[in-house]
Amino acid sequence: MSLRNPYGDFEITDPQAMRALAHPVRLAALSWLQRHGPATATQLSEHVGASPSVTSWHLRHLANFGLVVDGPPPTGTDKRQRWWRAVARGFRYDMPATPEGAEAGALLRTELMNQALGTAQQWLTETAPRLEPRWSRAAGASKTRLEVTPEELETIESAIEELLAPYVQRRNAGESPEGSGSVAHLRMLLPEATDTDRP
Fold first, then answer.
1. What three-state secondary structure class fits 93?
2. What pLDDT, on a 0 to 100 scale, did the predictor assign at position 125?
3. Which of 90, 131, 166, 184 has a Cα-to-Cα distance from 160 of 20 to 30 A?
């Protein structure tokens, strides 16, 4: 596992880590820590739909795979509480080639897509109505059908990452310009099955 990619994301290669992260509470906890910074299990429990003790158990499970670590308590807080932080602002994985790995990767992909759909629905109902007009005009979605080979799709994905990387990195470095805001960029690549692919 490393951070060598355009975004500085945590790279998951262990199928067991993929399977662990495919749990909705663990994925929600990690996502919250990546977005908001260090928190205690009690604080996180309010956002992930689990009790503090269950949330703490899930955080320890994530720590076993290096996805979260103990974070120093913020200044002025109770140092007896255990604080957690994500090791990176994002994570990524490649679909493993082994049957066991592919199953774990598919579980994680399913949970990630479910979370993304939930994020989009929550944005539509809670955030979109409150946006300033200039942000509302800039927001949107598109649906484009491509005719590509698997290799070309990988090239497209790499080009998108290279384009977005400076904006991801400046946020991580605390160098966002005045007037900037946080934007969730959701993207899904959904190859369609051909007649020969269908069982």
1. strand
2. 95
3. 131
Enter the tokens of residue 43: 């604080």
Residues 149, 30: Cα–Cα separation, whole Å: 33
Q: How many helices (H) and strands (E) does the chain have?
A: 7, 5
Strand, helix or coil for residue 53? helix
Please state, in angstroms and rounded to a whole number, the distance separating the CA atoms of residues 95 and 104.
9
Pair 49, 131: CB distance under 8 Å: no
For residues 112-122, give the mean pLDDT. 93
Q: What is the CATH number of domain 1-123?
A: 1.10.10.10
Helix H segments across the chain? 15-21, 24-36, 41-48, 52-64, 99-122, 133-138, 150-172
Q: What is the pLDDT of residue 44?
A: 95
Strands 83-86 and 39-40: antiparallel
Q: What is the pLDDT of residues 21-74, one digit of tens each?
A: 999 999 999 999 998 889 999 999 999 999 999 999 999 999 999 999 988 777
Specify the pairing of strand 10-12 against strand 91-93: parallel
Q: What is the pLDDT of residues 156-192, one digit of tens each?
A: 998 998 999 888 888 767 788 998 988 888 888 889 8
The SS3 call for residue 17 is helix
With beta carbons less than 8 A apart as the criterion, state whether 36 and 74 touch. Answer: no
